[in-house]
Amino acid sequence: MVSNAKRYTTEVRGAPAIAIVGCLSLATELIHSSFKDKDELLKAISEKIHYLVTARPTAVNMKRAADQLTSFSKRLHRENVSLAEMVSLVIEWCQKMLEDDVSTNKKIGDFGAESILKSVKDRKVKLLTHCNTGSLATAGYGTALGVVRSIYGSGQLAQAYCTETRPYNQGARLTAYELVFEKMPGVLICDSMAGALMNNHKIDAVVVGADRVTRNGDTANKIGTYQLAVVAKHHNVPFYVCAPTTSIDLSLAEGKDIPIEERPHTEMTDVAGVRIASPGISCWNPAFDVTPAELITGGIVTELGVFKPAELYDRLRAQKL
Fold this sequence. Notes:
44% of the residues lie in helices and 16% in strands.
C-alpha cells in the first residue's frame, strides 16, 4: 500500500494525461535551461523524469514514458548529435505524445463501439461509466468516454449514465461537464445507485478506464470500479475496460502486485471545504481498487482491438509490447 496522502494534491489526473503532462513539463524545463554538455543533459533528464514517477505510482503510463524517454535520450547521447540537437529531439519526442494519444484513443473508441453495437440489434444503447476518462483525462478524446463518443457519433447512443465517483467527484465534476458540453444525452447518478439502475433499466454495457492492467488481465481503476464489475456480473451487463497499451504492465503478474495510493481523508470528511463527517472518525481512502480479470466480461479495449483478459498477454507479446 502506498500512502501519499500528506504530500501531494491532485493537479493532473488520468493515467495518459499524467504521462503526457509529466513529459511536457520536462520539455518546458529543457527549453528554459542550459547544460554544459550531453552528460549533464542526460543526467538531468533521467533524474527529473523518474522523480515524476513517484507522484502517481498506481498509473503505469508515467513510468513507461520515463523508461522510454530515458532509453531514447541514452541513444542520442551515444550518437553523433550535438547538445542542441539532443535537446531539440527530446522535446520533439515529448510533443509527439500528444498526437499519438489522440490517435490511440480514437481507435479505442471505435473498437469499443463496434464491440458493443455488435451485441445490440436495432436500438440505441444505454451505457454506464465511472470516474472521468475523457478529454480531461487524456490529450483530448478519451478512452472509455471515447467509446461513448464514438457510439454517440454513430447516432446509436440513447443514454450515458455517469456516477458521481465519490469521494473526489470526478464523474459529477468532469464527466458530467463533458457530456453536457458536447450535448450527449447524459444522466448523473450517485455511486450507490448503480445496482438499482441496472435492475430497473436496460443497461447495455459498463465502460471504464484503467490506470494499470497486469499480465493476467486484472485492472486497477478509480475506487468503486470493482463493485460496479460485481454488480454488472450479477445483472449480466457486459463490463469493458478501456486502456491504451501504455497502461498495460506485463511485468506484473496480477492485480495484487499493483501499488495502490491512498488519498487525504479530507476528501471524505469535507465537501467544498465544509466538514460533514463527525470529528474524530477514522477514514480509509484508497484512490483505486482492482477488478479481477474474470469480471471483465466484455473485454479489454485497446488501440489494437478488444481482447478477453486471458488473451491479452499472448496478443501483446505477439506485438512485441
